[in-house]
Amino acid sequence: VISDVQAACQDATVTQELLKEGFHRDLLVKVELGVVGEDAGGCAVAARTRLPPGIYVDPYELASLQRHNLTKVVLIPDVVDVEAPEYLATDHLVLLYMEPDPQCSRCFRAALPVHGRYHRPAEESEEALVVLKSPEVLVCCCDNRLSTECWKPAEVEAPCSGKTGGACQWYSVTHKPVYEELILQVPVGLRQHSLLVCVVTLLATVLCSSLILAAVCKYGHFS
């Protein structure tokens, strides 16, 4: 019996890619479970990933998306400083609930909007590299009799549906990432441009302040 179970256990396949360009991207995650001969249609699948300090998820944006049922995400911690630069930020965990792929009974996918943080100016390169590791695959089959011999219990305090409710038993799935890590290239400034940036910023500030002051003096009503 053990040999039959081991033969039926195959690693899940995980693919993740970054869509769009620049600071504001979409992280697309795809998972194909590796249990042979069984239908995972009644299971919930989630990807748990740790975002490094150079990248973050906007909780206010997520709240808007979740109100429209466009995504289901749990942030740990749930408070994220969206204004902090990379060198003052900390990493955080994301539990991304995935939707079934109608074309494959064992396939799931989900997209998550992520944003790059500002980095310190560099000496030579105009890009900073942010490394995103492959996520951990979690499965919860609360309403399904899918065999769980291939998986290990995971300590996750979250409901299967991604909505409010009691927590259920999640399992960690052995997976085979298509790529071990994903690299986000974030544009950064060059140190030798610091003086030029300061001068241009100062001139723009003085010019705009002068225009505002002139408009107030010309059109303002003073008692």
From TrEMBL:
Q: Name one Pfam family in it.
A: PIG-X
InterPro entries, alphabetized: PIG-X/PBN1, PIGX
Name the pathway: Glycolipid biosynthesis; glycosylphosphatidylinositol-anchor biosynthesis
Instruction: Give the UniProt keywords, A-Z.
Output: Endoplasmic reticulum, Glycoprotein, GPI-anchor biosynthesis, Membrane, Transmembrane, Transmembrane helix
Cellular component aspect of the GO annotation: endoplasmic reticulum membrane
Report the main location listed first in the record.
endoplasmic reticulum
- This protein's gene is called Pigx
Q: Where in the cell is it found?
A: Endoplasmic reticulum membrane
Query: Record's superkingdom?
Result: Eukaryota
**Entry function:** Stabilizing subunit of the glycosylphosphatidylinositol-mannosyltransferase I complex which catalyzes the transfer of the first mannose, via an alpha-1,4 bond from a dolichol-phosphate-mannose (Dol-P-Man) to the glucosaminyl acyl phosphatidylinositol (GlcN-(acyl)PI) intermediate to generate alpha-D-Man-(1->4)-alpha-D-GlcN-(1->6)-(1-radyl,2-acyl-sn-glycero-3-phospho)-2-acyl-inositol and participates in the sixth step of the glycosylphosphatidylinositol-anchor biosynthesis. Probably acts by stabilizing the mannosyltransferase PIGM.
Which BP terms does GO give this entry?
Answer: GPI anchor biosynthetic process
Its membrane topology, per UniProt? Answer: Single-pass membrane protein
Q: Any stretches that span the bilayer, and where are they? A: 194-217
Q: Which family does it belong to?
A: Belongs to the PIGX family.
* Protein name per its UniProtKB record: Phosphatidylinositol-glycan biosynthesis class X protein
